[in-house]
User: Fold this.
Amino acid sequence: MPSIAEKELYLGYTPDELERSAYARFFRPQMAPLAGHVREALLTGAIAHELMPPVSRAGDLHHPGYWAAETGYSTCLDGSARVFVLTPMPGVTPAMWDWWFAWHGSEAQRYKLWHPRAHVHVGWADGEGDLGRYVGRISNVVEFVGPARMNLTIRFVRPSEAGLDEKRLVASGEVAICARGGIAGTPMETGWLIHHVRPVEGGSEMRSRFWVGGENVRPRSMPGAVGGVIGSIASRLVPLKAIQASELLVHCAQEMAHLAAFLPELYATFGPAHQQENRE
Amino acid sequence: MPSIAEKELYLGYTPDELERSAYARFFRPQMAPLAGHVREALLTGAIAHELMPPVSRAGDLHHPGYWAAETGYSTCLDGSARVFVLTPMPGVTPAMWDWWFAWHGSEAQRYKLWHPRAHVHVGWADGEGDLGRYVGRISNVVEFVGPARMNLTIRFVRPSEAGLDEKRLVASGEVAICARGGIAGTPMETGWLIHHVRPVEGGSEMRSRFWVGGENVRPRSMPGAVGGVIGSIASRLVPLKAIQASELLVHCAQEMAHLAAFLPELYATFGPAHQQENRE
Assistant:
């Protein structure tokens, strides 16, 4: 990724940004307590991986109802970790999230709204600003996950690449944000993520899925079996720890619940209607 | 243990089993949230081992009242871990648990009722089915404890072998399920467990005790001092981690509270009255 000056790598808004940024009124450093089902998952600790299907079963997200575990984490013998999080989002539509993923990646001040206590920096790898889309683009992010500041690459892919049926998503008014994630500066993509957003009474709910390490590791641009073998050898050397999985669970639960609380207002202010106005 | 085909090693009931099994209406995949005192113990984390007496003090279970720690875990300098769990069981009698321990070990479909999210397989080492007793028998179980699927041997022993007074138990209407536990395929028995069930107003309460690793390790069939030395050397090489103790605490708290909620109904359906009928 393009190198970022260390002085740009700070949490939160500066006093100057708080005064001048167009987004400042949405920068809300107070975060709500963890939801009851998230607390339960954290106290329960790592669960049987059989309760948390692998990414090859992502298509099951199309089924109605819920999986055996919607919020929880597990570690597997191949060194991988699985983290699932359910986030209820009253008043939010799937389209708002589709917009958000295209919009947030162009400016750190936008990205920081999402997790004011962990998000540090963001930029598109293509060097461009807003293009109104995220699929096919790579987002370079700097964020804390637990105590570790990480430089990550999020390469957004089409839902079909993750095993989802795009026509079915559209037909049911659902959105699935899908990506391959990696550690910046390494030749490996280490995981998959899916945020599946579906309409429910009064709003929507997000079902986040992370599959990291182990069988999910591939050298970049080497998607086949050979890449899989190389990835699995590499990842066995550094198995994911349960604590890392629980930190990812906390991070995801926090950022999704936090943004959902004001996403409708943000969308009304900076979303398609606003962008349309600006073009006129 | 007799080898089990990998295809038999799955969590839960299959759709076919749900339709045909005589026990299917007792297979309840939803588990209640962890009880308040269990949450407190998990958040508190490992405590001073002095609050959790060793197995040599098991006889103190006969005393009225409660121990300094009834729910909690600790790790000791000898590499051992201690895990205690108190489970209130309204409507349950100690005799029901005595029946359960003899009954559940003959079929995986019975065993899975107990912990629908962690229990995988069970079978008696003697190859027999129901004998109406468990003391003197070895149960081979496959279960997840936290994220790890384990093959364990549970060798049930008389309460007197664990230091309890059998006459006193009978006189007070109490039951104590006592066993030596081990990892299948190893020459060591690694721990002790006691589930002490005593009547209380409105039902009973179970006081579970696990002493694992360290001084509790013995080569199988070598109960004396020499066995103790060998065990303690072996176990020092792989000290129990606090996370393993907390996973065991969660597992025990979940399974005991889960089964207790329908044990009276299960006992009425498949217990001694039913078994008597079948014999007539």
User: Anything to note?
Assistant: The two ends of chain B are 35 Å apart (CA to CA). Chain B touches chain A at residues 10-12, 29, 33-34, 39, 42-43, 117-118, 144, 146-147, 149, 243, 246-247, 250 (CB under 8 Å). Strands of chain B lie at 72-75, 81-90, 119-124, 138-145, 148-157, 175-183, 188-200, 203-212, 218-219.
